[in-house]
Amino acid sequence: MGQQAGTQIAPQTPYNPGLLVTGVSYRTLSVEWREKLTQRVPQPEVIAQTIVSRGLATEAAVLSTCNRFEIVSVGGDGGGIKTFFESLLGSPSSVSQALYQYHDASAVRHLYRVSSSLDSMVVGEAQILGQVKQAYQHAVQTGSIGAHLHHLFQSAFHVAKKVRSHTDVSSHGVSLSYVAVRLAQQIFADLSKVSVVVVGSGEMAELAVLHLCSHGCNTIVVANRTLERAAALAERFGGLAVSLGDLDRVLDQADIVIGSISIDRPIVTTAALKSRRSGRPLFLIDLGVPRNFASELAQLDDVYLYNIDDLGAVAEENRSLREAAAKDAEIVIEYGLLQFERWRKKIAAQPELVDLRRAVERICAEGVSEALAGRLGESSGEISAHIAHSISQKISHELTELFERQRGISSGNEAEAAPFVLVPVSPVEPEKTAGNRGSSQKHSAGQ
Amino acid sequence: MTHLVAVVSITLYLLATALFLLQLWRPSKTGRTQRTASICCVLAFLLHSVTIGLVLRDPSFFALENGADYFLWVSWVLGLVFLIFRRWFDYPMLGAFIAPAIVLFMGSSSYLLHQDASSLVSAGGEKAGQDLVVSLLHGVPALVAVVSLVLALAVSIVFLVVERRIKRRTALALEAGGLNLQLLDRLNTHLVRIGFVAISLVIVSGGLWAVMERKSVFTLDTSVVSGLVVWLLLAAILFVRLVLRWSPRKISRLTVVVAGSFLLSVFVVLALAGRMTHVAMWS
After folding, report:
1. What are the boundaries of each domain within chain B?
2. Please, which residues have CB within 8 angstroms of residue B278's CB and are 6 or more apart in sequence?
3. Residue A113 — pLDDT band, cuts 50, 70, 90?
C-alpha cells in the first residue's frame, strides 16, 4: 500500500484502551490486612489522582469499603498498578497473593456484580451501591476519570438499579432486626403510634429498638432488674425506664414487647395477657434464652409471638431466596455487559468513521475542483453529471478497498496486517488539489 | 351494541382476575403481571362505564329498578372503589378477591342484558321507573350497602390470609407489603359501618314506600328478609367489635359469614331465580 502525504493508512492505534480492576476484598484478604490498608490509605481519591498523574493509567477511581479496596482504571500497564498497589501496604509478598486483577469484560462484569451487591458479604445489601457512587463522585471531583470510566460507572449504577428492581436479591431481609421491623410493619399501621417495651438491656434488644426507632417508633419503655442500666438504655432512645416489678403495669399499654433478659421462667404468661388485651394487636419479640415469653401466648388472638429461632428461620429463608434471586441478577448483569461492550465497540470505531468522513469530504472537494478546472465551457448539466460520476467512482473505490481489506480479500500483506483506519488528513485546499489531479488519482488507486 | 361492549368489558375483568390470582400465587419479580392486570381493570372499567351510558340512553328508564342493571351498577361502583383503592394500596391480594366479585355481578347483569331493558321494567310493574325519589332513597343506599359488603368480605378474607401467614412464622409473613393487619381491621370496621347505615336507609325507605303503596310493611320477599337479617347481624358485628372489643380475627370471620351469606342470597334471588326487580314480587 502506497503511503502518500495526507492520505496514508496508519497502523492501528488502540482507541479502546483496556479496562482493569485491581484490588483485594474480604474473599482474598484477612480483616487485619484490610484494616492496615484502610489506615494507610485514608483518602482513596488521592490514590486515584496519583495513579493518573504518574501515568500508570489514563483514568482511575478507587473503591474503598471495609470489605474491599479496588482500583478501577483505564489504559496503562496492569503491572504498574499492581506494583503501586503492593507499595501501599509495604509488604508485597503477603498482598500479592491476595491481589486480583480483572481485565476488560471481566473487569466490567466484576464492577457490575460489586455494585449490584452480588459480591458482597451479605448478598443484596444496599450499602455498597452508595459506596460505589461515592467512589465515582470522588473521582469526578478530583478529575481522575474520563469518558470510559464515566460511562462504566453510570452503566454500573443502571445495572445495579435494574437488579434491585427486577429481581428479589434485595427484597428479603437477612438480619434479625430487619425481620422484626418488617413484621411490626405487617401488624401495625403506623409505627410512630406504637408503644415499645424492652425487657432487659441486651445488645440484640438494643439493636432491635434502634431499628424500630429508625422506622418511626418513639415511645420506648425499658424494664430491667437494675434501674440504672434501664435508664442508660432508655436515655439513648429518649424513653422511660422502669424496674422489672413494674412490667405488668407498662405491658397494659404496650404494642411491641421485646424480651432480652436472662431469666429462668417466662416473665409474660397467658394469664397475665388474657385479662389485659382489648382487641389491640400485641407483637412479642423474644430474644432471650431461656425464653422470656410463654410459648402458649402464640395461641392467643391478636398476639404474635416470634422467638429468636423463628426470626432466625425467617432470615435464613430470606437468605436462600436471595441466593436464588442472585441467579436472575447474573442475567441482568450479562445483558448490561453486552450493552457496555457494544458501546465500547462504537467508541473504538469512532476515529475510523471520522477519517472516512474526512476522506469522503476530500474526494468531493477534489472531484468538484477537477471538474470545474477542465470543463468551463460545458453546460451545467454535463458538469454535474461528470462530478457525480467522478465522486461516486472514487467513493466506491475507497469503500471497495476498505471492504476487501476487512474481508482479507486484498493480496497486499500490509493491507491484511494493517488496520482499516484512515489517518486524519489535513483539509484539502481546492487551489492545490485542482492542479494536482494526477496525484489524487494515484492515491485512489493506491488505496 | 350494549351487549357487545359489556361482553368485552367483562372479558377484560376476567383476564384481570386471572392475572391477580396468578400474581397472588406466583408473584412476578418485575410486577409486570400486576401492571397488566391493572391496565385490564382500567380498560374494563371504561367499557363498563360506556355500557352504563348506553343503558341510560333511554330517558324513561331508571337502571336501578331491575335486577340486571342493578347488578351492572353494583359491579361498576365496585370497580370504581377498587381502582381508587389501588391508588393507595398496590396489593394483588385485594384484586384477587374484588375482581372476581365484579365479574360475578357484572356477569349476572350481562346475562340479562340481551333482554330489552324496557320490557324488564314493565315486567316489574307499571309504577316501576316512575318514582325516582323512592328509587334514589332505596336503590342507591342498597347499592352502597351491597358494594360495602362485597368490599368488607374481600378485606376480611385478606385479613385472615395475612394474619395466618404471620401466625405461621414463615418468610411469607413479610410478603404482604402494603396492607397491614391494623389497617385491614380498620377498613373492615368502616365498611361494616357504611353497610349498616346504608341498609338502615334501605329498610326505612323501603318500609315507607311499602306503607304508602301497599299498606303493608313486611313481605316474605327474600331481599326484604335477608336485608333485615343482615341489618341485625351487622349491628351485632359493630356491637361486639366496638363495645365488647372482640378481636379483629373473630370480626373478620364473622364478616365473611354474614357478608358472604347475604350476597349469596341477594345474588341467587335477584340474578338467577327472579330475573326481575324484587318490587315485582310484591304484586
Report:
1. 1-117, 124-283
2. B67, B221, B222, B223, B224, B269, B270
3. very high
